Amino acid sequence: MSGFDASHSAAVLWAPECWPRLPQRLVEMLLHFCGAPDWLVTIGGLVAAAGTVVGVFLTGFALLSLIERKTLARIQNRIGPNRAGWFGILQPVADGIKMLTKEDIVPTKAEWFLHLLAPILIVVPSILALGVLPYGREWVPVPLDLGLLFFFAVGTLTELAVFMAGWASGSKFPMLGAMRAISQMVSYELPLMLSALGVIMVSGTLSLPGIVAQQSGFLLGFIPAWNVFTPWGLSAGLVFYIASIAEANRCPFDLPEGESEIVAGHMTEYSGFKYALFFMGEYLGLFAISGLGITLFLGGWQAPFPGLGSVPSWIWFFSKLVVVIFSFLWIRGTFPRVRIDQLMRFAWLCLIPMALLTIPAAGIWHFAGGGLIGWAVTVPMLLVPWVVLTIHYNKRLAPATRTYTFADS
Fold first, then answer.
1. Which among 178, 23, 109, 14 has a CA at the least distance from the CA of 1?
2. Does the N-terminal or the C-terminal CB of the chain have fewer CB atoms within 10 Å?
């Protein structure tokens, strides 16, 4: 993937496993045929790979905007979009045209350059993060040895963009909304990163393809050797999943927007295509964080059952991505929004302690070599705190008993 390989046969090039890399290989072949130097061939291949990733996930963003509205309509016994095209299939196109043609209003007191830059910086980190994920055995757009570290590093740029959007708007409500969004994102980044430390300890690498390779094979001949099928991996995966919902600003943690409190948060003073960029960044971030969770805990592109090696590996990755994304949609249509104090208390008093516990549990599991000793030590070590915290939070967060007094007739 770092240059053109002249021995790469046409049969392998057109194999289903290599279809996602076809644009990259064709560009490399064309540049090599034109006599371009190796460094230019490498750059051209990387640009083609990046264009493939961007094209795939921008198409996914358009489709997900329709699928989400249809799914929520089904859950809530509504019809959903059904006017633009057959079965509403052209609704994303109509939304895009509407956003492009709407007037771009910039407040008088806004810092116009930062006001313009903020929505762009929202999208860029998600695209960079998508570039390092291993989508298949033959499809890793940018194979970095420190891919996991790079993923979390570029993710922190989102907080800067959110603060920039709130401050540059020149209004109180966007600034308050930005600070609330940043507090949520910073708080839930901690359990997100801590839950990934156990994976690093067990796999011994920060390379995302290396983490996927560590989860290859099957236990007892039919159970996938994924991290989620270990006690520490199940606990860390659950923490990662909950924290990723908050990081993606999805319900029930969609606190950056509150119509009755801070209007649209840091996006209040945005309109037109700038407003659409915020949602594009949110959906691309949802793809990125879901893909990372699949890579860390669900085996990445590894098949879920033995004997399925003939199926292209990238199909398994995107099948898992569809299931994870659908779970996010289901949760949005099921759970109500929590309060900001509940959100922060849950992160600091529940998720972070549980994420910290997964680190020694992963170490014990690794040095015990799994087996009965690993199960006997790590299961009670993780199960007891989960039960205690669940009982505690059910008592603290459950609605209090109300006594109603009616006026005498």
1. 23
2. C
